[in-house]
Amino acid sequence: MNDLTAGTDQPVNDRMLTLDRLRHLVADGSVDTVVMAFTDMQGRLQGKRLHAAYFLDVALEAGTEGCNYLLAVDVEMNTVEGYAISSWERGYGDMEFVPVWHTLRLLPHLPATAMVQCDLVWPDHTPVVESPRTVLQTQLDRARDLGFTAHAGTELEFILFDETYEAAHDRGYTGLRPANQYNVDYSILGTTRVEPLLRDIRNHMYAAGLDVEGAKGECNFGQHEIGFLYNEAMVSADNHVVYKNAAKEIAAQHGKALTFMAKYDEREGNSCHIHLSLRGTDGSLVFWDADRGARTRLYDQFIAGVLATMEDFTLLYAPNVNSYKRFADASFAPTAIAWGEDNRTCALRLVGSGASARLENRVPGGDVNPYLALAAMVAGGLHGIEQELEPVPETTGNAYSSGQRTVPRTLRAAREAFARSEVARSSFGDAVVDHYTNMADVELRAFEATVTDWERRRGFERL
Question: Largest alpha-carbon pair distance within the chain?
């Protein structure tokens, strides 16, 4: 038995729910369904829909569980070998869902539905350390122990198609009609064409407690981005996965489909640029010296640490075979492990000053798991601070032709770098490193066993 009301915390803003407010909404019939969800290795929301009365009357005390295979499957939900926490030999037991109460929110795009995001613990109440949310929390705890809090914002791009998800599936996800037939980067006309959908996503997400900035067109046909205000790193990661899931659901309600995959076709891929800064636990600026009007040494050490671990941690920024198709020269997807002031050709772009001073990691794509990527950035930066790494010289001009080291260009190379990394094992622990190394192995085996359409077109007749 669990007391899931213990340790309740305050909502992030007044659009979020408290448990008392949820009780009132259930009593008056405004809410009849509560989703309990966690984020899996692939960055997807998984969980259960509970009848609201059962949630309040039973689940709050008794809790709810899910099979531990949910952190040991591939993207197709196949059970696979190699995970220490879950297997046929271990009997595929349960994990317990522990609500994180400041994530309790309405999902206004769904009828009478609320949702709470959850941490995962074992039946003995110890944390599931391989859970993405726990991986990030561990790094945020490290930062807090050093006197810092992390603030972040993620920028997700997607490509929108006029077909439904069902039609896209039946067509093998090829030959789909994009919602725009030309480059609509910053185009007001181009976004007007799909404004009914963009408006619904913006307004529903604002009502769900996210702080929406705006929407803009992007370069690929049918490509768009909806931006959200930065927040504490964990809040931004929680909101990221809510938005990504809801955007697909809202698109389906409009009879359309959208994809966040890193590289859908040969044109521009979907990025997920991640902005990050540290502040003192008292809210003080630690990245900027106001008297000098310049970066602090601590900020330079943080940058040096993120760059020093970039190769080792690329697996957490680019977790799929498809992720690496983004990494092409002159593509606005970075390859050089370098930083530059407002330089979009570098892996790290430094922007802002004063309270807005932050670094932008341009490596991740739209398929990234935000908890793992933010954990990697925080771990890398703390490594730089703890080891007092020397500042890295700025790269000016075109980083693609600078001769700098590059991020791994394949999943296998990233997997090898992560698996052998001493700093990864010291930062995340062997259990986490081995778990996500196995995730890469599963992805690689599946891809290498697949005959692609490209191979058929190239070789069916002519080879």
Answer: 70
Q: Is residue 295 classed as helix, strand or coil in its secondary structure?
A: strand
- Indicate whether 285 belongs to any domain: yes
Which pairs with CB-CB distance under 8 Å and at least 24 residues apart come from 195-202? Answer: 196/254, 197/160, 197/250, 197/251, 197/254, 197/256, 198/224, 198/226, 200/109, 200/250, 200/253, 200/254, 201/226, 201/243, 201/246, 201/247, 201/250, 202/226
Same-domain check for residues 121 and 195: no
User: Quick one: average pLDDT of 307-331?
Assistant: 95
213 and 177 co-located in one domain? yes
Give the model's confidence band at 6: pLDDT under 50 very low, under 70 low, under 90 confident, else very high: very low
Whether residue 13 is contained in a domain is answered as no
Measured in whole angstroms, how far is the alpha carbon of residue 63 from the centre of its chain?
27
Dihedral of the CA atoms 303, 305, 309, 314 (nearest 10)?
-30
Host H or E run for residue 224: strand 223-228
CA distances for 393 relative to 298, 300, 329, 351, angstroms: 15, 10, 22, 16
Count the alpha carbons within 13 Å of 143 in the hemisphere toward its beta carbon. 31
The range of the structural domain enclosing residue 78 comes to: 19-126
User: Which residue matches tokens 């941690």?
Assistant: 313
Mark whether 109 and 178 lie in a shared domain. Answer: no
| Tokens found for residue 398 | 């075109």
Query: Amino acid identity, residue 218?
Result: E
CA dist 375 → 200, 304, 378, 461 (Å): 31, 16, 5, 48
- Does residue 144 fall inside a structural domain? yes
Q: In this structure, are residues 299 and 357 in contact, taking their beta carbons and an 8 Å threshold?
A: yes
Q: Rounded CA gap, 136 and 322, in Å?
A: 24
Among residues 103, 126, 149, the one where a domain terminates is: 126
Give the Cα separation of 360 and 317 in Å (integer). Answer: 13
Q: How many CB atoms lie within 10 A of CB 118?
A: 26
Say yes or no: 180 and 68 in one domain.
Answer: no
**pLDDT value at position 259?**
98
- Give helix then strand counts, H and E, for the chain: 15, 17
Q: Which of 11-15, 31-35, 133-137, 318-322 has the lowest mean pLDDT?
A: 11-15
Residue found by looking up tokens 């991740």 in the block: 364
**Token pair of 360 as six digits:** 């932008």
Whether 134 and 128 have beta carbons less than 8 Å apart is answered as: yes
